Amino acid sequence: MGTSVRTITIEARVRPEVAFACLTDPAGFGAWLPRSPVYRGTHVSTTAADGYEYVDHTPLGEVTGRLVSATPPERVEFFQATSNRALSIRIVYTLTPTAAGTSIARTGTITTAGLLRWLHPIVVAATVRENRRTMEHLRTALDEPTG
């Protein structure tokens, strides 16, 4: 197995509660996160009192994710994996109030197994590029004035 951890941080001009609400609404991701060659959309598959499951569509196929924990408005944790667990990613968002709004750190723990383990550096590079793109779109969406 190969495992890598990467953190990307952005600053947004909104209160942590606003950023938290955006991050815990995967059904709304399509409103601010355009599709890419790596990310082809999110579909919320189940909703329960303790969280929900969702499916991201990727070149590797469907990646099923779930909300692991949420501590409003400071922390959100997700876990997602391919059905064969060749790729699994733990994502933790940490939201910290600042004078101008909120600092949002996304820490991803990327684990590859099986044949994907041999492509670990390539998988990590593609994932980090996509995470940067996601965080830039998140910042833009949060900083845009609402109508």
CA-atom Rg in angstroms: 15 Å
**CATH architecture term:** 2-Layer Sandwich
Task: Give the CA-CA distance, first to last residue.
Answer: 47 Å
Q: What name does the CATH topology carry?
A: Alpha-D-Glucose-1,6-Bisphosphate, Chain A, domain 4
In the CATH hierarchy, what is the class?
A: Alpha Beta
According to CATH, the homologous superfamily is START domain
Number of helices: 3
pLDDT < 50 runs, ≥5 residues: none
Overall helicity: 10-25%
Q: What structural category characterises the helix and strand content?
A: alpha+beta
Q: Roughly what is the average pLDDT, rounded to an integer? A: 90
Determine the strand fraction and express it as a percent band. over 45%
The main sheet orders its strands as 1-7-6-5-4-3-2
Count of individual domains: 1
What's the total count of β strands?
A: 7
Helices and strands, in order, run as EHHEEEEEEH
Q: Which sheet architecture does the biggest sheet show?
A: 7 strands, antiparallel
Approximate shape: globular
Layout of strands and helices, then pairs:
Elements: E1 2-12, H1 16-23, H2 29-32, E2 42-48, E3 51-58, E4 61-71, E5 75-82, E6 87-98, E7 101-112, H3 120-143
Antiparallel strand pairs: 1-7, 2-3, 3-4, 4-5, 5-6, 6-7
